[in-house]
Amino acid sequence: MTIVEVLKLSADYLQKHGSDSSRLDAEVLLAHALKLRRLDLYLKFDHPMSESELGAYRALVARRAKGEPVAYLVGHKEFMGLDFEVTPDVLVPNPDTEVLVQRAVEIARESSGPVRVADVGTGSGCIAIAIAHYAKNTEIWASDISREALEVAGRNASRHRVSDRVHLERGDLMQPLAGDFDLVCANLPYVDVAAGSSLPAEVVAQPARALYAEGGGAALVARLLDEAPSHLKPGARVLAELDASVLSRAAESAVRNFSGHRVLRDVGGRERVLEAWSFIPTNSEPRP
Ligand SMILES: C[S@@+](CC[C@H](N)C(=O)[O-])C[C@H]1O[C@@H](n2cnc3c(N)ncnc32)[C@H](O)[C@@H]1O
């Protein structure tokens, strides 16, 4: 069979097994199996595949059909135009998170001086590293409770040559991060623990401690918004990823602890990031 025939069959198969990006999944897995770039597949559509190539590819497609995320199968994922190592110890970087990073970079670039940033629940390090890459005036302190995730984040920081500006600490929320911050970013777990059984297989395949939170999913985001003010410089901002189901609980914490907040939407138009700004001792409030 040729590459184009194999792609057609495997994309149909993956679609029947619940993938909503079946053609893309088939191409990414085939490029990985053949050690090609995905675009190179198009130049080789008529090439016949050997039995051993087909065997390796079939095994990947079978695992994908059972719900393993493509990023775990190929070991990496693109986020904000950068390639990140991904293992089953970390959440797969999600394009929905890019709106948070874009806003963080915008805030950092508005500043004429150095910007101290915290990234709480860093996972693969994708938020911290992308901010460091795109805003050279930032220095970032990132925390996670998972030792394994921090090892992945450390390798990603080296891969993108920002280890000198991305410091990784293990512990709960901001507790291991010393000093005060201009900007706090967080993509903490916000899936209701009770929702576990109704989630797609590729979501459930990711680490439970990266997905679920108590309090209907809102507990960690709300606790961060309660605890962050004692770690902020005057006029600092917090950017917290969430979804609509936890927004009202998070907004209650923001009203209690900050002078203002607003909600940013992701590329799909969904409410995705709560931006809150802290009280400053003068009369001039920062404006969004
Ligand atoms: C949703 S994942 C996000 C990972 C990464 N920031 C991203 O956007 O892809 C949440 C991360 O928070 C970490 N985490 C969970 N509870 C935490 C806590 N109490 N303190 C610090 N990190 C925590 C998890 O280990 C996981 O790596």
Molecular structure report:
The structure is a single chain. The strands form 3 sheets. This protein has a 7-stranded mixed sheet with strand order 5-4-3-6-9-11-10, with helices on both faces. It has helices spanning 3-16, 22-34, 38-43, 51-65, 70-74, 98-110, 126-134, 147-159, 201-204, 208-211, 219-227, 244-257; strands at residues 76-79, 82-85, 115-120, 138-144, 166-170, 181-186, 191-192, 212-213, 232-241, 260-265, 271-277. It contains 12 helices and 11 strands. α11 (219-227) packs parallel to α12. 41% of the residues lie in helices and 20% in strands. The protein folds into 2 domains: 3-66, Helicase, Ruva Protein, domain 3 (Orthogonal Bundle), CATH 1.10.8; 88-277, Vaccinia Virus protein VP39 (Rossmann fold, 3-Layer(aba) Sandwich), CATH 3.40.50.150. β4, α8 (147-159) and β5 (166-170) form a beta-alpha-beta unit. The protein is α/β, with parallel strands linked by helices and 288 residues long. S-adenosylmethionine is lined by residues 90-91, 93, 97, 120-124, 126-127, 143-146, 149, 172-173, 187-189, 209-210, 220.
Summarize the structure.
The chain has 288 residues and is α/β, with parallel strands linked by helices.
